[in-house]
UniProtKB/TrEMBL annotation:
One annotated GO molecular function: transcription cis-regulatory region binding
The protein's name: Stage 0 sporulation protein A homolog
Taxonomic source organism: Anaerocolumna aminovalerica
Gene Ontology terms: cellular component: cytosol; protein-DNA complex
GO BP annotations, alphabetical order: regulation of DNA-templated transcription
Chaperone as UniProt keyword: no
Protein role: May play the central regulatory role in sporulation. It may be an element of the effector pathway responsible for the activation of sporulation genes in response to nutritional stress. Spo0A may act in concert with spo0H (a sigma factor) to control the expression of some genes that are critical to the sporulation process.
Residues of the Response regulatory domain: 7-120
Amino acid sequence: MGTGSKKVLIVDDEVKIVEFTEVYLINSGYEVYKAYTGKEALAIFQTQRIDLVLLDLMLPDISGEQICNEIRKTSKVPIIMLTAKSGDENIIHGLDIGADDYMTKPFSPRQMVARVNALLRRVKVETPPDQREGIIAFHKDNLIINHSDYTVKKSGENVSLTPSEFKILYTLANRPNKVFTRDELIHIAFEDDYLGYDRTIDSHIKNLRAKIEDNSKECRYILTVRGIGYKFGGE
């Protein structure tokens, strides 16, 4: 395996799921790390440069939610949550705590690899030359979005966003006052091969508002256009 292989951490206490997931990822060129408990997962994450995490929400010692929260304190690494609960509220909750995508068990290993591939492509996606060094500032530099290094600052303070949150924010902010439907945001921010739940956008919007708005109930940046979608209202 080449030294440039992406590193994927699988966190799940079900041995069979870990084993078949590992096989498919290795066959797709990934380097795989395995953890069957939350403590093992955090120990690996703290000592290895992990590129993506497949995270089960039901673990025997530390919950997947707690692990996700710990990772998000220091890293924007893409996280795909694995859950046996397919209800909308469970999915939305997982996205709210910082996951980028989700898969419900049982899942197709081929679809799992496709999700991993798509999410990693979204993280490193190239932009046109005229946007690569783009810095977008709003409201007298209160909010600064820097596409060159994927950073966001609000009132001079760094704002920690997941890769998916950044893509949505940049897509909206790059065309202020243009109304985007959920489908358009999925297509533009996540590429055509996104296979997820369309209400994922709503969860990411909710998270973004909590991070960049002074008052998430009276938004001035990310505005809802009822019955259609969202637009960016910065000046």
